[in-house]
Specification:
Helix 4 (about 95-105) crosses helix 20 (about 515-540), helix 10 (about 265-275) packs across helix 11 and helix 17 (about 460-470) packs antiparallel against helix 19. The chain has 20 helices and 15 strands. The protein has a 5-stranded parallel sheet with strand order 7-6-5-11-12, sandwiched between helices. The protein is of the alpha/beta class. The longest helix is centred in the C-terminal third of the chain and has 24 residues, at about 515-540.
Length: about 550
C-alpha cells in the first residue's frame, strides 16, 4: 500500500533529521496516516510532527517543515506540504491513481490480501452457547462478528481455525436435563416437576414430544438419556440456524471431554503446584489477587462442583499449550464482561502472555419495527429466536445489520427498515450497486465489447477518480479490521464504495459511442465489481447480479 511506503519514508527521514540535529532526538512515535476530511488537504496526512512537538515542547510546524525539506521523492506522490499546526499532507499523482485500476484487475480476487499475518496460528472461538435452547439475536450478532473477523484474518495471511465450544456440562445442563425429563414424563400423563430455575420454553415441550414419538417411553427411568438426546437435538438446530446465517466451524469442542480425558484434573493440579489456589470455607479459590486482580475467584464450589471459570482455564490450557495456537480470540456475549480480566489472569498463571488472548465483547441487540420495540415472539409468547429474524429478513440483512455497529456498542435492529427494498436500506443500497455493476458488464458482453485493452489514462472525471480513490481504501480497511479486530469497518466501507459507484453511474455514462472511453470505464466498472464483491463475501453476504 502507498500508505505504508509513505510511513516508512517518513520514518527514515525522521531518523536522518535527528542525526543531523534538525529535529529533537526522541524516541519516534508510531507513524500513522489519516485521510483528511477536506479534498484540498490531499489524500493522506501524517501527525508525526505534532506528536514530536508535544513530547519535546517544540513548535510542531518547524519539525514538519524540516521533515518535508529532507523527504525524498515518493513514487506515486504528486505533492507534499505542511498544514498548520504541523500536519504533513500528501497528494497522489492522478496518473498513478489511474494505473491502479489495471493493478486491481491484474490481482483480481486476490486484491486486498496480504501476508501481514505471516502464517500466525489464530483460533477464533465464537457463539459457544449452552445447548439448552435455540439461538437468539444476540447470539447471531456474535456469530457474524466472529465469522467475519475470521474471514478477514485469513485474507491477511493468518492461519485461522474457527471453533464452537459446546458447554455441555455443569449446573445449566443438569437443569436442562431435569426440565426436559419432566416434559417427557408429562407426554405420558405422568406427574412431573420442572426445577425452579429450569427451562420452561415452548421448545422444551416440542423436544419432549419428538423424543416420545421417535423413541417411545423407554427413557421414563433415565433422565440422563432424555437430556443427552435433547441436547443433541438442540445442537443440531443450532448448526442449522448457523448454516442458514452462513456461519461454519472447523471444530466443535465439547467441554465434557476436558473431564472425560482427565485434562481438567491435570490443569488443576498444575495451578495448585504453582501456588495459584487456596482452600477457603470448603471451596477452592483461584488467587487472582496475586496476579493483579481486584478479587479472587472460586474454582471448585463447596459442593465439589467446578465453576465454568475452572473449565475455561482447562480449555485455554488446551488451546495454548496443547494445540499450540499463537493467538486466541474469544467472542463473548455482554454477560461475560466481568469474566475478561480474570481469564487474562488465569492465562498468565498458565505461563502464557495475556496479550496472546484477545476477547471481544458483543453487546446486546434490541429489536424494533420503526418506533415499536419488540420484546417477545408473537408466535410463541417467548424469546425471539435468531431463526425467526432470519426467516423474516434473510441472512444477508442479518449479517450486515449485526456488523454495522462496533461490537462494544448496543444496537437497535429495525426489522421494518431491514425489509425495505429502497435506498434507505443500507443492505439494498450496497447490493443494488453490485447488481448495477453486473448489469453494465452483462450489456457489454451481449454487445461483444472486449475492454481488456482499455486505456485507463482516459479516466479524468472527478467521479471516476473519486471511485478509484475508494477502491484503494479496500486493502487499508482489511488491514484496519485485522489489526484492531473491528469488523464493523467493512459495512461502512461497503456503503462508501457503493456511494462512490452510484455517483459515478449518475455522472459518467459507461457504454457510449465513444469506444475508447467506453473501454476505459468498463475497466473501472470491473475493478469496482471485484472490490465490492470481495467486501460482501468477506462479510459472508451474497453479491447479487440482478435485483
Amino acid at each position: 500500500m502507498i500508505k505504508d511506503k509513505i510511513a516508512e519514508m517518513l520514518k527514515q527521514t525522521a531518523i536522518k533529521a535527528q542525526e543531523e540535529g534538525l529535529i529533537p532526538f526522541l524516541a519516534l512515535p508510531e507513524i500513522l496516516l489519516e485521510h483528511p476530511q477536506k479534498p484540498e488537504h490531499g489524500d493522506y496526512a501524517a501527525t508525526i510532527a505534532l506528536k514530536l512537538g508535544r513530547a519535546a515542547k517544540v513548535r510542531p510546524l518547524s519539525i514538519a517543515e524540516a521533515l518535508v525539506k529532507l523527504l525524498p521523492a515518493i513514487e506515486g506522490i504528486e505533492k507534499v506540504w505542511v498544514v498548520p499546526p504541523g500536519f504533513i499532507n500528501f497528494e497522489v499523482r492522478e496518473d498513478w491513481l489511474r494505473q491502479q485500476v489495471d493493478e486491481i484487475l491484474s490481482q483480481g480476487n486476490r486484491y486486498g490480501d496480504s501476508d501481514s499475518g505471516q502464517g500466525c496460528r489464530v483460533q477464533v472461538e465464537f457463539v459457544s452457547v449452552n445447548p439448552t435452547g435455540p439461538l437468539h439475536v444476540g447470539h447471531g450478532r456474535g456469530a457474524v462478528l466472529g465469522s467475519t473477523l475470521a474471514n478477514v484474518l485469513s485474507a491477511a495471511g493468518y492461519s485461522v481455525e474457527r471453533e464452537y465450544y459446546i458447554n455441555d456440562t455443569g449446573n445449566q445442563m443438569q437443569n436442562f436435563y431435569a426440565s426436559l425429563y419432566a416434559r417427557y414424563r408429562e407426554v405420558f400423563g405422568l406427574p412431573a416437576q420442572i426445577p425452579a430455575d429450569g427451562y420452561r420454553g415452548e421448545y422444551m415441550i416440542q423436544i419432549a414430544r419428538r423424543i416420545a414419538a421417535e423413541r417411545g417411553d423407554v427413557f421414563l427411568e433415565s433422565k440422563e438419556d432424555v437430556g443427552r438426546i435433547g441436547a443433541e437435538i438442540i445442537i443440531d438446530s443450532i448448526k442449522d440456524d448457523l448454516d442458514f446465517l452462513g456461519v461454519q466451524f472447523d471444530v466443535w469442542f465439547s467441554e465434557q471431554t476436558l473431564y472425560d480425558s482427565g485434562k481438567f484434573e491435570r490443569v488443576l493440579a498444575m495451578i495448585k503446584h504453582d501456588n495459584h489456589v487456596e482452600e477457603r470455607d470448603g471451596a477452592l479459590w483461584f488467587v487472582s489477587t496475586g496476579l493483579g486482580e481486584d478479587k479472587d475467584n472460586v474454582l471448585i464450589r463447596s459442593t465439589g462442583a467446578p465453576t465454568y471459570f475452572a473449565s475455561d482455564i482447562a480449555y485455554h490450557y488446551n488451546k495454548f499449550l496443547e494445540r499450540g495456537f499463537d493467538k486466541v480470540i474469544d467472542v463473548w456475549g455482554a454477560d461475560h464482561q466481568g469474566h475478561v480480566s480474570r481469564m487474562k489472569a488465569a492465562v498468565n498463571a498458565l505461563g502464557v502472555s495475556p496479550e496472546r488472548l484477545q476477547i471481544i465483547i458483543s453487546q446486546m441487540v434490541s429489536l424494533r419495527r420503526g418506533e415499536e420495540h419488540i420484546r417477545v415472539s408473537k408466535r410463541t409468547g417467548d424469546i425471539i429466536t435468531l431463526r425467526e429474524v432470519l426467516d423474516e429478513v434473510g441472512p444477508d440483512v442479518c449479517r450486515f445489520f449485526f456488523l454495522a455497529r462496533s461490537a462494544n456498542s448496543q444496537m437497535d435492529f429495525d426489522l421494518e427498515l431491514a425489509k425495505k427494498e429502497s435506498m434507505d436500506n443500507p443492505v439494498y443500497y450496497v447490493q443494488y450497486g453490485h447488481a448495477r455493476i453486473t448489469g453494465i458488464l452483462r450489456l457489454a458482453g451481449e454487445r461483444g465489447i472486449d475492454y481488456a485493452k482499455g486505456d485507463v489514462s482516459l479516466l479524468t472525471e472527478d467521479a471516476e477518480l473519486g471511485l478509484i480513490r475508494k477502491l484503494l481504501l479496500f486493502p487499508e480497511t482489511l488491514d484496519l479490521v485485522a489489526n484492531n479486530l473491528e469488523p464493523h469497518h467493512l459495512p461502512h466501507y461497503a456503503q462508501d464504495l457503493a456511494t462512490a459507484f452510484h455517483i459515478f453511474y449518475e455522472k459518467c455514462r459507461v457504454i457510449t459511442e465513444d469506444e475508447p472511453l467506453t473501454l476505459a470505464r468498463l475497466k473501472l466498472v470491473e475493478a469496482t465489481r471485484i472490490v465490492l464483491a470481495r467486501t460482501l463475501r468477506l462479510m459472508g453476504m451474497s453479491a447479487p447480479e440482478r435485483m
